[in-house]
Structure formats: C-alpha cells, structure tokens
Amino acid sequence: MSFRLATVPGKPDRPNEDFAAVGANAAVLLDGAGTPPGTESGCLHGVAWFARTLGGLLLGALGADATLSGALGASIERVNRLHADTCDLKHSDTPSATVVAVRWGTTDIEYLVLADSVLVFDRVGDAPEVVTDDREAMVGRELRKPMDALATGTPEHARALRDYVAALADHRNRPGGFWVANTDPAAADEAITGRVRRDEVASMALLSDGASRLADRFGLATWRDTLDTLSAEGPAGLIRQVRRAEDSDPDGLRWPRGKAHDDATVVYGHAED
User: Taking Cα atoms as reference points, which of 86, 105, 109, 113 lies closest to residue 207?
Assistant: First the structure.
C-alpha cells in the first residue's frame, strides 16, 4: 500500500497532541486527550509526549507476531515503566489517547479502534465501512450540554469545559463507561477489532476526531465525500476543508464543540496499481 499523512495543530501556541506513523506493514494514529489549560495531570511529560511515546512503541510492537490488542496492552505497560518513577500514574487526569491501528499481510488487513478516532475503509464496489468507538460520545451526550450552550472561547465556556472533562473522568476505563489508552493495559481488550480482506479495500483512512469533523460532527460531507477528497487532494486538502468550516463558526454556535480548532491528523493509504 502507498500512504500519505498530514497533521496540523489546533493552535500554533500549543503542542500537537496527535501522533501518526506508518511502518512496513502497519500504521497507527493516536489522538491525545488534551487537558484544559490550568488542569493538572500528574504527569510532568504531558499529553503530546504520551501520545507519541505510546504510538512509537505500538508501531514497533505491531511488527511482532502478536494480536493488535496484545501489542497495545504491552505498549501501555512499557510507557508506564518509562515514567512511573517521576509521575503520578493514578491521577484522574493522567494522559490518555485514542488509538487506531492497522496491520496488513498478504491477504488481510487487521484493525483496532479504541475511543473516538475513526477508521474508514473504501470497500471495492460497496459503500464505505466506518469503524469508530462511540462510547465516549454516548456517555458525554448529557454531560456536555452546559458547555455546548456557551460560545467557544469565552471564560464561561472554558469553565464548563473543565467541568465536562472532570465529569468524564468518572466514566473513563470503567464498565458501562468508555475506554481509552492510558495506564491500564486491560483497556486494550476493550478495543473494537476485526479484519477485512485486502483485495476488497481500495483505500483506507485513519482520522483523529479533529479531521473527521466534516462528516461526523458538522454534517458537511459524507464518508464517500471524505474518501473522494482524500483521493483528489490528499490529507492536507481534507484538513484545509475542516479549517475553513471551523473558521466559519469561530464561536461554536452552529457546531458546539470543546475547541474551535482541534489537532487534525489523517493517514490515507490506497492500494497500489
């Protein structure tokens, strides 16, 4: 397969907390769960470090003969060992991340999706197949209503965002709640996994939720539109469209959201001729 990748931070003065990479037989995308300014996480390294460290270790682990969930669980344990002596890994706001991982062989493509990043397969002769984990969205639907009623960028919205993030923490990595990659290797077993035949996939896209907004939050594009944009304009072209939409609604009045602009990352792979 041939791949293109693009990533753009949500704000130039804050680190990009997404991570994506492609190896010889695998690709990964992680979206670090950023904490609102002024929120302590117990980790001196921060969310961006966590996402790129876990992502790099996971990509390496996918080269071995292990299940995708096994590779993710082992990689979480390795990250824990890297900063257990310096950071409070039991803190409620310890860094976490969504995970999308794919690994391909001669005949099949295996996949893993944990939390709300998105994997889209362009199925040959069929509609796109979308794989995402909506448990956080289901939990957060009621919790986010006070935040969504306020204009993005106001002090009131910032306070509501902090309250929302704190309320979500009570449901994170718990039965009946939602699951993300942080310090508990068992979260890997809660991921959505599966496989598709390689000859049935014309292309595939791994998207952080900052890049999938046109389709799943703004309703400005279908998944077919998204794949067509990626084919014609590449990942950078899709992100430019997302930014134009965000810029048209800077206060979040049309599309309520936690951030006016989010980190946006796309990995796009297509079958070689």
Answer: 113
Q: pLDDT tens across 155-191, in order?
A: 999 899 888 888 888 899 999 999 999 999 999 999 9
Query: Would residue 64 count as lying in a domain?
Result: yes
**CA separation for the pair 266, 36 (Å, rounded):** 23
Q: Give, in degrees to the nearest 5, the angle at Cα 243 between 240 and 246.
A: 155
Residue 17 domain flag: yes
CATH number of the CATH domain containing 204:
3.60.40.10
Domain of 31 in residue numbering reads as 2-134+179-249+261-270
Its sign, for the CA torsion 230, 58, 91, 12, is: negative
Q: Which among 166, 135, 169, 162 has a CA at the least distance from the CA of 147?
A: 162
Summarised one tens digit per residue, pLDDT across range 215-252 is: 999 999 999 999 999 999 999 999 999 999 999 999 99
Q: How far apart are CA 40 and CA 221, in angstroms?
A: 37
Question: In a 10 Å sphere around its CB, with 0-12 CB exposed, 13-18 middle and 19+ buried, how is residue 125 labelled?
Answer: exposed
Q: What is the pLDDT of residues 67-124, one digit of tens each?
A: 999 999 999 999 999 999 999 998 888 899 999 999 999 999 999 999 999 999 999 9
**Which token pair is 45?**
């390294």
Q: What does the block give as tokens for 117?
A: 């990043």
**CB of 122 closer than 8 Å to CB of 19:** no
Average pLDDT in the 181-210 region?
Answer: 97
**Opening angle at CA 173, ends 167 and 176, nearest 5:** 80
